[in-house]
Amino acid sequence: MPLLLDSCGSGSSNLQATDMLRGSGNLAGSAFRATAVAALRQPVTTTRLGLSVLWHRPREVISGNVPFEVLPEPLTAEAPGSEEFEKRLDREHFPRAKAGKLKWLVDGPGFFPEFDRQMAAARKSIDVQVYIFDNDDIAVRYADALKKRAGEVKVHVLFDDMGSHFAQTAAPETPAPEGFSPPADMHDYLQKDSRLSARLVLNPWLVADHTKLLVFDHRTAILGGMNIGREYYSEWHDLMVKVEGPVVESLSREFTRAWRKAGPWGDFALFRKSVIYGKPKPVTGGIPLRILRTDPAEGKRQILDATLLAIRGARKRIWIENPYFAYDDIALAVAAAARRGVDVRVVLPARGDSTIMDVGNLSTARDLIRAGAKVMRYPRMTHMKVMICDDWACVGSANLDTLSMRINRELNLAFSHPATVRELEKAVFTPDFRRSREMTLAETDASFSRLAEAIADQL
C-alpha cells in the first residue's frame, strides 16, 4: 500500500520509528478516514478521483507494455524559454505567470534555518503543508516551535494522512538522541496543549497530496521537495525555493483551498466566500513565475503537459535531476531529444529509498543511454525534482512517475528567465554533475523482471 502513495520514506527501523502495534492502529485509522470519512466529507472529490484512477491505471498498464515501438511526437515550433513558448502556454490555458523573486535553498542546511527565520519573523500567520510530518526528533523539534508560535500568531499545519503515518513506521538512517521516544500520533501531538490547528489530507482511492508549501504572513512562501523530518534535515540531497512577491497571493490561495477541503465540511467548504489577502508588495528582481499543478480531482495535469511541451521543443539541452524517473511518455520524449542531438543529462540517486522505483530508474536509464543521453548517479539519495529545458526551468514536488504526473496532487513552479535559470544551474546542476558518476549501459542490465518494471510504471 505505501508504494501506491509515494516512495518518499526511509526503509530502516529503530527506536525512532513508531512501534508496529501503534503504527498498525494509525494506518487502520487512516484507511477508515480514506474510505468512510472521505466519502461523507468529500463526495465530489471521491467520485472524481475514482473515475480518474479508473482511467489512468489501466492506461499506464497498456501504454507501458505495448508490443510495438511508439513513435515520439515531432519537434514543437516554440523553443522552451522563449517568449513564443510562454505565449503558447498562455494560449493553452495554463495558469498565468505572476511576478516573484526566488532564492534557492539546497539541502537541510539551506531550508531549515530559513524555516526558522520565517517562523520567528511571522507577525500574523504561519501556514504549513507537507506530505510527511514525521514523528522523529527533528519533526518534534519543529512541532514544538510551531506550537510555541501558535500562542502569538495563527498557525495551521496540514499533512497527508496515509503518507505521514506510513513514514512514521520507518526510521531515518541516523539514530535518534538517546532516550527519545516518538509521539504516537503527530496530529494529536501538534494540537495538544496548543492553539495550533492541524488537519489531515484524506486519501480516497489512496490518492495523496504530495504538496510541500509553507506560507508566512501571506507574503513569503517556501515550496519544493522537502518534508519535515530527519531525512530532509541531514540525510538526503533536496531542494526548496523561497518565493516573494505578488505570486505569493496565489500560493496563499492554494494553501487555503487545501486547508478548507481538509476540514469538517470537506468539499462543501469550497463554496464559502474567498479569503481576501493584502497583495504582497512587488519585489526588486522579480520574474514571471507560473504555478503548475497535478490535481486529478480538478482535471489538472499541468506539470505533465508543460514538461512534455518543453522536452519536445528543446533545441540545446535537457537537464534533469529526480529520484524516480519511470513515466514512459516523458522517458520517450527525452530519448527522442537525445537522438536529435540535444544535450541530455539525467541525475538519479545511486541508491534510492524504494527497490521498485530503483528498477524503474534502471529501465529508463538503459533506454536513455542507448539514445545517446548521459545518465549519472548521485553518490547518495537525491530527492530533488528539478528540470531545465533550454532556458525554461521547472522545480517543485513532482517526481517523473505516474503518481506525480497523473494521480497525486503536486505543486511546481516554472519560469523562462535566462539569468535565474543560470542561478539554478550553478546552485544544483554544476555541483551535482561534478559529484555524480556517469553510468554505463552494462550497469543497467540488472536482472529485474517484467513484473517489477510494470509495477514501477504504475508508481
Automatic annotation (TrEMBL):
Cross-referenced PROSITE patterns: PLD (PS50035)
Single Gene Ontology MF annotation: phosphatidyltransferase activity
Any Pfam family matching the protein: PLDc_2
GO biological process, one term: cardiolipin biosynthetic process
PLD phosphodiesterase domain segment(s): 205-232, 378-404
SMART domains in alphabetical order: PLDc
InterPro entries xrefs: PLD-like_dom, PLipase_D/transphosphatidylase
Name of this protein: Phosphatidylserine/phosphatidylglycerophosphate/ cardiolipin synthase family protein
Organism: Luteolibacter yonseiensis
Lineage of origin: Bacteria, Pseudomonadati, Verrucomicrobiota, Verrucomicrobiia, Verrucomicrobiales
